[in-house]
Amino acid sequence: MAVNAVRASWREKVVTETNKNSKLQPSRKELIERAAALVPVLRERSIKTEELRRIPDENIADLKDAGLWRILRPECYGGYITDFGAMVDVSIELGRGCASTAWVYINLISHNWMLPLWPREAMEEIWDENPDALIGSTLVFPSGNLKSVDGGYHFSGRWPYASGIDASDWMMLGSMIPNEKEGKEPRIVVVRASELEVIDTWFVSGLAGTGSKDVACENLFVPNYRVLNPALTREGYTPGTENLDGDAYSFPLVPFIPHLNMGPIIGIAIGAYEDFINKLQSQTSVYNRSRLAEHTTIQLKIAEAGVLIDTAKLLVRENWMEAHQFIKNGDRSSVSDRARWRRDAAYACKCCVDAVDLIHGVSGATANYLDNILQLRHRDIHAAAHQIHLSWDINAPEFGRVAVGLTPTNPLL
After folding, report:
1. 88, 261 contact by CB (below 8 A)
2. Which residues contact 280 (CB under 8 A, 6 or more apart)?
3. 304-335 as b/e, with b when 16 or more CB fall inside 10 Å?
4. What's the confidence (pLDDT) of residue 156?
5. What is the DSSP track for 164-223?
6. Alpha-carbon distances of 119 from 18, 124, 137, rounded to whole Å
7. Which of 230-239, 300-309, 377-386 has the lowest mean pLDDT?
8. 347 pLDDT tier (thresholds 50, 70, 90)
9. According to DSSP H, which parts of 66-173 are helical?
10. How far apart are the first and last CA of the chain?
11. Torsion from C-alpha of 248, 249, 254, 255, nearest 10 degrees
12. What is the dihedral of CA 81, 87, 93, 96, to 10 degrees?
């Protein structure tokens, strides 16, 4: 009882101080400005980040100093209550500077939004112990196995793509659990990062700085309250979140994971566009010394790349704003809505990749030099686009199935 009283007292103090001091609850505009202010230094460190094959400690610290790790952590744990899109917009700014940093940021910060979907004991265990705890994930469900035991589960598996594991205190891992009727069904399991074996497999051509290594465990005990059935999140309004401030906690989970991934991708595309435009101010042709900015073909590529990026931004923003309006009205999304949202995120990804390809294609041989950040952005955006949630070839047919009245192949949709 004494421990619980201390915890309650601490949370009450945080809320009181937050209400008294507006600086503890910055506006979304302030948060985005803080992220934008980091762009030059992140850009400067981007090559170093790739060489390290993980996010530099100073990047993690800079994000903490800017308060950006607090977004959508519940207010009682010292967090900032914002709309869903604040996470996306901050990661767009970070992506203008460093794709890998933005990718790890959105992976970790998204779990501030997701952890409240678990029973309250999970939040209390993690954030009472360390309000600044960072939570990573790799939701590859077939890679994990759960076996029921008294009070919880024995958990085993090996998972790829653990982006940001080097900076994470906890991890969310996908798993399957036996089901008498359907064979197996998915679960998301929260474990301490220190309880996992980290296997360095991340030798890649793009997003190398994310440090997305393999992780593994064998017969690790996990209590019941750290295991979530993602089917509960299908329509949003997950049990337990109704007592939390902030409509973002009522979002359906599966349709909006791709929108999180889109933040860094839009940022990469904007960064490539900005770098290209800036270089054109003085760039001339090696062969005839003509000014490249005056070439009509270049101007056409600029226009097309720009509208592709703007299309991606508009699609992503329209989707999360629509979901917020659903919640405001007390409505629930349909399967058709959720399939459309995933379709739109996948198409937004396609737009950004096409935009960077257009820019890269008219940048000449100088784009091949390793000290030219454009070649890094080109590799990074193609690596990011391989994320299954953003595959047009997967998500477009899924929408088509739903549109003609067929059952979706994704059971969590």
Report:
1. no
2. 292, 293, 298
3. ebbebbebbbebbbebbeebbebbeeeeebee
4. 98
5. TGGG-SEEEEEEEEEETTTEEEEEEEEEEGGGSEEE-----SSSGGG--EEEEEEEEEEE
6. 25, 9, 18
7. 230-239
8. very high
9. 85-97, 99-114, 120-129
10. 41
11. -20
12. 160
What is the rounded distance in angstroms from the CA atom of residue 199 to the CA atom of residue 195?
13
pLDDT over 90 for what percent of the chain?
80
Query: Tens of pLDDT along 156-192?
Result: 999 999 999 999 999 999 999 998 776 899 999 999 9
**Tokens read off for 408:** 């979706």
As beta bridge partners, residue 198 has 215
| Residue owning tokens 């794709």 | 99
Going by C-alpha positions, the residue among 195, 137, 191, 187 that lies closest to residue 163 is 137
Q: What tokens were used for 164?
A: 């940001």
Q: Which of 168, 58, 39, 46 is nearest to 100 (CA)?
A: 46
Give the Cα-Cα-Cα angle 90, 122, 176 (nearest 5 degrees). 90
Q: What is the pLDDT of residue 285?
A: 60
Instruction: Fill in the DSSP letter of residue 154.
Output: E
- Give the span between the Cα atoms of 17 and 6, in whole angstroms: 16
Per DSSP, 80 falls in state B
Q: Which of 261, 268, 204, 201 is nearest to 46 (CA)?
A: 268
Q: pTM value?
A: 0.92
Q: How confident is the model at residue 238 (pLDDT cuts 50, 70, 90)?
A: confident
| Overall residue count recorded for the chain in this entry | 413
Share of the chain above pLDDT 70, in %: 91
Question: Could you give the C-alpha distances from 183 to 173, 176, 179, 213, 311, in angstroms and in order?
Answer: 20, 10, 5, 30, 42
